[in-house]
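Open question from group meeting: does this chain pack into something compact, or does most of it stay loose? Before anyone orders reagents, we agreed to write out a predicted structure and look at it together. Recording both the input and the output here so the notebook holds the full record.
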Amino acid sequence: MDFSLTDEQRALQDAVRSFLRDRFGPQQVRAVYEDPEGNGLPDSLWKSIGEQGWLAVLVPAEHDGIGLGLLDASVIAREFGAMTTPGPWTSTILAGEALRLAGSAEQQKTWLPRLAAGEVKAAVALHKPGSSPTPDNPAAQSSGGTLTGQLQLVEYAEIADLLVVAAQDGLYLVEPSSYTVTRCEALDRTTRVATVELNGPGEKLESSSPAVVLELLDRGAVLVANDLVGIARKALTETVEYDKTRVQFGKPVGSFQAIKHDLADLHVAVTMAEHAATYAAYAVDTDRDDKTLAVSIAKSKAADTARKATSDMIQYHGGIGYTWEHDAHFYFKRAKRLEYAYGDAAQHRERVAKLLLDKATGNLGGATPGGSQSVQGTGVAAASA
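Structure tokens returned:
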């Protein structure tokens, strides 16, 4: 089965890469990093992201979107990871997906065109941080339309115009008047995080259900996995280029056998993680029976690989890699943050084990928490495990 990107997807990849390289490269990222009191989102960047159509990628055409698939969005996510691009792109995309999957016609009409155009920035809180990403671990509680709960580590809540929250009975749209925000210090300054105290009403998405929440969590995991493999590939590429020119004992350090072998192994790991993340997006787009398995393989493999690639980047850049002035810590800190987003590697490996055991024993019902998934045709995804 061929999983090469189409010509259109390659053109999208090149467009995102070229734009970020020319308009929002490491110098601009550093400016965000070194302004911890700022909101983490340059207005010019967000405006450009909206103008380029990168927020409209999954929004249906009837709501002023482009109507593409998760694989196309993953192409963008991968380039954003490679350039450690700040901003609430992922959360805004997921808010649009929540509306597309579960919103009423009126809710979609009200919000989707504005999300697609970048007129609205969104934050999401779909499960409790640190918990397994399932509908059984909602971020909030609802009673009579009123939402309560303290939401931890919500990205870009401070500047969000809309918050999508998962409660025990489904998804809710919450506007800023219904919550208060307290900013938290973030290790990775390519984002801004906050504690959100819910204290008001929310508008329930009409068709939300545990199955929809699980679908949304898995889509978030796929986007994050692709961000992580973008980080991993960039970290590896930068390390190889540096070690071709750094000289010790009269030779480039990249010529030393131990380093060559380790970087070769890392190249294989990054390539396999890229394939797993691509397949997961494809499996979700085509609603394959093994999509849940593919998502967990992709997220666990991407998290492990990005952690290895970014830590090796620091190691193989020598003393300069440990300095604030070098960009290596941008990649390491972003990878560390995203490693735990939408389930860490251990949680996803546990789900992989459960899915495969359930398949082996014929217990396909209840193979995933909060929903029933049939696991057929797992050969390609399992081969990437």
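Observations to bring back to the group:
The longest strand covers residues 146-155.
Residues 210-245 form the longest helix (36 residues).
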